[in-house]
Structures are given as C-alpha cells and as structure tokens.
Write a structure and sequence with these properties.
rod-shaped; 3-stranded antiparallel beta sheet; alpha+beta; 5 strands; 161 residues; 2 domains
Length: 161
C-alpha cells in the first residue's frame, strides 16, 4: 500500500517525494560537513607526556654537555697531576659559552662558578639549572599559549683526579 502511495497512476515517482528526498540528502550532507569541521577544530590537544619528555631530554643533554665540558677542562688545566682551579674555571667558562647557542639555559652556569670547589684532589660542582618550556597551539589563525612548565634540576658531581 505504501508503494502505491509513492507512485502515481503512470507508475513513476511523484515530484513532492523527489523534492523531500533531495532536501533530506542535502540536510544530511550539510550536517556531516558541520560536524566534521567541529571535530577537526576540537582535535587539538596537548600531549603532556611529549611535553614532559622534551623537558627531560633537554635536562639530560645539558647534564651530558656539562660532564663533557668538565672532563675536557680538567684535562686542559691539570699539570703535574695537580689541578689549577683558576685555569679550570676559565676553560670551563669558555666551553660553556660555546654551548649557549645550543642550550641557552647554560648561561645560568656562568653566575654559579663559585660553586666549583677543589680540595684533596676532588673537584666538586654544584649547579642549579631552571628549564622553562611553553607549548603553543594555533587556532583560527591565532597563536595561543596552552601550557607552561618550569623544571629545576641540580647538577651535583664530584670528580677525583
């Protein structure tokens, strides 16, 4: 009976039914496009794991760099199996300054040279470094600061000669 209502006397589908079907399909397509656009805009999220991992990787890289600079400076400033502390600090500072372009946070070490001590053939370093990271997100052509993290770590090493 429903089939008879859709078809007119000649057996073809009536014009109002075609128009209604066309409008429904248009509305469905438009709705899918709107929902797809909203979903695309809301998919941007912060990955805290990645954000923290970048900070810790930078910390480890700075620790490794400082360790390498210290080892090299000890080699340069040791004469007759005795370390010249002033020569060590000078060499250490030169090499730390070379790393500023890679790790700008190492500028903090320049003011902490007084925390380097040498006694009884033991060199001791005690530095505090603060890393600050900012995560930004672009939305509708604008840049937004989404998250900011500060991480402070201690480089406390002892070297024996």
């Amino acid at each position: 009976m429903l089939v008879k209502a859709v078809h007119n006397k000649r057996g073809s589908i009536s014009i109002p039914v075609v128009v209604i079907v066309f409008l429904i399909l248009t509305l469905a397509a438009y709705s899918l496009m709107v929902f797809g656009k909203e979903r695309e805009d809301s998919q941007t999220s912060i990955s805290p794991g990645l954000f923290l991992r970048e900070t810790y990787v930078k910390e480890q890289a700075i620790r490794l760099y400082v360790d390498g600079v210290t080892t090299e400076s000890i080699r340069i400033s040791t004469k007759d199996k005795e370390l010249d502390l002033d020569q060590f600090k000078k060499s250490f500072l030169e090499k730390i300054r070379e790393g500023y372009s890679t790790y700008p946070e190492m500028q903090q070490l320049e003011g902490q040279l007084s925390k380097i001590s040498y006694s009884e053939k033991r060199l001791k370093e005690n530095f505090v470094v603060l890393l600050a990271s900012t995560s930004r997100m672009r939305y509708n052509g604008e840049n937004y600061r989404v998250a900011e993290a500060k991480h402070q770590f201690l480089i406390d090493r002892e070297y024996s000669s």
